[in-house]
Amino acid sequence: xxxxxxxxxxxxxxxxxxxxxxxxxxxxxxxxxxxxxxxxxxxxxxxxxxxxxxxxxxxxxxxxxxxxxxxxxxxxxxxxxxxxxxxxxxxxxxxxxxxxxxxxxxxxxxxxxxxxxxxxxxxxxxxxxxxxxxxxxxxxxxxxxxxxxxxxxxxxxxxxxxxxxxxxxxxxxxxxxxxxxxxxx
Amino acid sequence: xxxxxxxxxxxxxxxxxxxxxxxxxxxxxxxxxxxxxxxxxxxxxxxxxxxxxxxxxxxxxxxxxxxxxxxxxxxxxxxxxxxxxxxxxxxxxxxxxxxxxxxxxxxxxxxxxxxxxxxxxxxxxxxxxxxxxxxxxxxxxxxxxxxxxxxxxxxxxxxxxxxxxxxxxxxxxxxxxxxxxxxxxxxxxxxxxxxxxxxxxxxxxxxxxxxxxxxxxxxxxxxxxxxxxxxxxxxxxxxxxxxxxxxxxxxxxxxxxxx
Amino acid sequence: xxxxxxxxxxxxxxxxxxxxxxxxxxxxxxxxxxxxxxxxxxxxxxxxxxxxxxxxxxxxxxxxxxxxxxxxxxxxxxxxxxxxxxxxxxxxxxxxxxxxxxxxxxxxxxxxxxxxxxxxxxxxxxxxxxxxxxxxxxxxxxxxxxxxxxxxxxxxxxxxxxxxxxxxxxxxxxxxxxxxxxxxxxxxxxxxxxxxxxxxxxxxxxxxxxxxxxxxxxxxxxxxxxxxxxxxxxxxxxxxxxxxxxxxxxxxxxxxxxxxxxxxxxxxxxxxxxxxxxxxxxxxxxxxxxxxxxxxxxxxxxxxxxxxxxxxxxxxxxxxxxxxxxxxxxxxxxxxxxxxxxxxxxxxxxxxxxxxxxxxxxxxxxxxxxx
Lengths: 185, 259, 371
What we know:
The structure holds 3 protein chains of 3 kinds. Chain A is of the alpha/beta class. Chain A has 6 helices and 6 strands, in the order E-H-E-E-E-H-E-E-H-H-H-H. Chain A has one domain: Pyruvate-ferredoxin Oxidoreductase, domain 3 (3-Layer(aba) Sandwich). In chain A, helix 1 crosses helix 5 and helix 4 packs across helix 6. The longest helix of chain C is centred in the middle third of the chain and has 21 residues.
């Protein structure tokens, strides 16, 4: 059984890094994992995306036609991935930059105002971690604690001081995603 | 009667770095002179055992047969790239390329320019006879305006085939070059000057001063359709006006050197 | 060593560093640029040679020169850059000196695009440059395999004095996976007895690809062929999955091979008895194994990210003993497992029996229907 997650947004939104954080956590938990980005000219200021597959067994294709989950940080990404998700898939969309409703009704979807939450925390660059927190709340592919640990283990030395803010972002994202669902937790 | 036997004194002999063999060069060709000068310099400086030569494609393709040192044979025009590979791995060795004008100025323009720009610490012996010799006398980028060749049978028309390229002047403009001069092999005095230039070029390399190149104006009696003697006159009267002899780049450390 | 999350390009570069590469020459080109960038940082830090050449033509000739000194050398590029290197590759082959190169393939021909492709199979497997020679071609399907095959490439190149190519595609180059790097090897090695490194205390040596007498060139070609036959006898490598009871067999290399693995696993879950043969050496190709499997397989499906370049070699190997179908995506399009699964289902429902005709033709007609 494998779980496929697409993370997509504008270049500069930390899309590729969010995928790597997830990949590190999967590796540290002894799972199989692949991370594959879109690359090249399209990354220069355009839309960037990466696909992360986490699995208990050897992974074949690093890309899938219909992913289990999508984290979309802008409208073009929502337009692209909403139709592709598997039925009952998880969709985390950045409400701050998307001015339309989610059309599909068979998804476990969250519209999260990630930019506003990031500003509340006081660090605009944390949008990716907020979205990742929301994803992990909806898709229990890895425990949040494992992701925090992987951040601690793999964040470059010069960024280590941002750990507490990153943790806060993950929690705020998860908290938002689970609003009104406390019964489930 | 007492007779005095004078012990013969050797005043001229084959340099050790020059192979004891017959060359394939045409009678009267100055390649042989250029080879000998390089070999003399290797001998004088004691470099033979640590030298790797890079042969090119053209008449000098077999130059590796005429030197008593290790040699590699480069694809057409790529000798400066190959020399870069050799020298970077063996920085304490002596490396030189031996290239003609078709090889260096036409197909190898990119490699020579960038090797010079990088200041690669090897020496280029550039033999310019204004024609493709090996393939039978076609026009080279260095051919003189009006020059009749097998690929410019009506004479080189600069309107359609461009103008002669003066490589030494161009290379001298690159900061990586330490020593760039043009000499000629058309008479004894100029041969001596050529030798001195080659010595300075190898001295530059031994001192780690960067790229050095000696352009030697040479003849091609066969493809110029001249006697050897006339071809030397042709260098003097026709080539030198287009390719003036001179020092185009001599970095100060080298200018002070007396050899 | 512990596993690290490594990008294919970086993993290949670091594997080469640890395998003791002494000199690297390259030119930036997507999708292999991270490889060059890693070398730019690592090689000088280890006091080894790194040169960013002015072109791929120059890069391969720098490699040529450095290889002549007996040093362990490498270059890397991607499809259009590799085309430019073909001149030097032919010369290096003709000089019979070892060299490792990596081609991180992209869509083509021409400038094409930077997406993953397998369009250079023919170019690399057939040699690509002029003249008679046979490079070893290794095709990794994962980051770990890219590391292992890079190390192997140096061993094979030196053992057989030949060119060893790691033929990856943009997907392997750009992908990150957990992988384990080898320990750092000592660079100091015995200088080979053919190296041109200054004739101190010995006869002078010449390294060249010139054999002016046709009889000498013929002898050289035969000597290279003999070496190649040894390679064919000893160095064939492949991986197999679910082959034991397989009625149908999928063949794919590199990224196409691993995508096919997903499809084969899914087909197994549906009860289809299908297996996968993934060639690791494309040259020499595991042709004998294919011929063996043809004895019991009902049909083959060759999957590639090109128009069926390996397909032609599979057809030769199978020699009509079993029907062969083909599925390819082109121009930088990577197939999804679903597409290959569909082809496997079609094959299982209506096993092809016809060994006449060409699989490429039938595939083309199916593709045309898709349009």
